[in-house]
Design brief:
1 helix; rod-shaped
Length: 135
Amino acid sequence: EMRHQREMIKVHGLWRKEKRRVEELEQEMLQITEKHAAEIDDWRRWQMDEAKKHEVDIGKLEGHLSRLRQDASSQVHQWQDRLHRLEMQLEKSEEVRVRALRSRDEKQRHTSELEVELQRTAGSTRAHVSEVENR
């Protein structure tokens, strides 16, 4: 009976020791779990902060892209207007060139007609002078 009581005391002592060890491990596990939860919260906050930063950056980039598109559109319109003015100038220049060529051709034709008339007049004048000399 004494031996049984001693063994029971010994077992009870071991049980209390192991119970304390289990409580310590449970406390340690609780601390690890809380620390892990805090790390997860920190990580989620960091993710949200990064997402906000990215949203701001995207907003800035979209604004910049919009301004670039407006500038490009404005440049296209300016170049189209300039091209149209140059086409009109070219058309007027072509008209002036055609008129100048027609005028030159008309003057050459008129000059040729005058030369023919002059030669005919010179020929008839020589014939008349010969006729007058022969009389």
